[in-house]
Amino acid sequence: MTQQRRGQGPLLRFTKMHGLGNDFMVVDAISQQFRLNPEMIRELANRNFGIGFDQLLVVEPPGLPDVDFRYRIFNADGSEVEQCGNGARCFARFVRDQRLTNKRVIRVQTAKGIIELRISKDGQVLVNMGVPELNPPAIPFAANSEKTVYTVDVEAQTVELSAVSMGNPHGVLVVEDVDTAPVSTLGPLLEKHPRFPARANIGFLQIIDRGHARLRVFERGSGETLACGSGACAAVVAGRLRGLLDERVTVELRGGPLVIEWQGEGSPVMMEGPATTVFDGQLRLPGDTPPRRRKSSRTYKNRA
Ligand SMILES: N[C@@H](CCC[C@H](N)C(=O)O)C(=O)O
């Protein structure tokens, strides 16, 4: 990895946050101007040479009426994505703590639509994650017709998985025990499987009883994380469609529990959980020489 020269560019204020150990660098792009490209994001995400995070969250002014903010999400590999459940809760807490709003119900524009965040008095955040998408081309997932369970050939084996979009693509496998599930081997193979043309987050779901489950997620663009909010929503949708779970489920992730509620097809998925601030910081970005343009690299520039 090439390390960028530091100490010449503008100072960037950021906040380090996490939702059940899924950690974020959160940046206010309303009151400061900066440029980040995928290579810089990868460097900042690096846990040894950078700040270290699973996702970068960027808070922008809204581009639509009746919306409070625009929310952009970048994985540790620099790719921009559509949805992040744990990030949405941290986003809500960040805009309140930074006094960017005093509302308790916040409407946020994401790359896949509008989500609503509700901050309760005890600091928990309730997120309306929207209606899950099960139609294969919209996920996107390659299949001739919509099914609850698909068989997928991966190397020498065949696995069964459900495919769900929560704004971002998920594959969900039901396993006996998450502790012994092949997360680190099957996870990366399925993340990049040709049947998921936009790659996917891969969840390994263990059913404890109809109201309790355990989950580990190998995230697209970040690897296994301690928790994945959209993954927990997708897992409950998959578990409900397979007739294994009730409407309200506590999902135990490696970093702690989330409560997920889904009334069934056509209804939005509700997610409730904590959002934690770790520290505020500032760093000097590399000098103002614009990053070398590469064919595949997109430059992030805020619109403020
Ligand atoms: N950690 C997130 C999901 C972040 C995006 C994901 N890796 C993707 O590429 O879709 C969550 O809490 O939902």
Automatic annotation (TrEMBL):
Its main location: cytoplasm. It comes from Marinobacter litoralis. InterPro entries: DAP_epimerase_AS, DAP_epimerase_DapF. The gene is dapF. It is found in: Cytoplasm. One of its GO terms (cellular component) is cytosol. The keyword Cytoplasm applies. Residues 282-304 are annotated as: Disordered. Residues 292-304 have a biased composition (Basic residues). Substrate binds at N22, Q55, N75, G85, N86, N168, N201, E219, R220, G229, S230. HAMAP family: DAP_epimerase. The keyword Cytoplasm applies. It catalyses: (2S,6S)-2,6-diaminopimelate = meso-2,6-diaminopimelate. Pfam families: DAP_epimerase. It comes from the Bacteria. Keywords: Amino-acid biosynthesis, Cytoplasm, Isomerase, Lysine biosynthesis. Homodimer. Its EC number is 5.1.1.7. Pathway: Amino-acid biosynthesis; L-lysine biosynthesis via DAP pathway; DL-2,6-diaminopimelate from LL-2,6-diaminopimelate: step 1/1. The record marks F279 as: Important for dimerization. This is Diaminopimelate epimerase. The lineage of its organism: Bacteria, Pseudomonadati, Pseudomonadota, Gammaproteobacteria, Pseudomonadales. Signal peptide: none annotated. PANTHER family: DIAMINOPIMELATE EPIMERASE, DIAMINOPIMELATE EPIMERASE, CHLOROPLASTIC. One of its GO terms (biological process) is lysine biosynthetic process via diaminopimelate. It is an enzyme of class 5 (isomerase). The record marks H170, E219 as: Could be important to modulate the pK values of the two catalytic cysteine residues. Belongs to the diaminopimelate epimerase family. GO terms for molecular function: diaminopimelate epimerase activity.
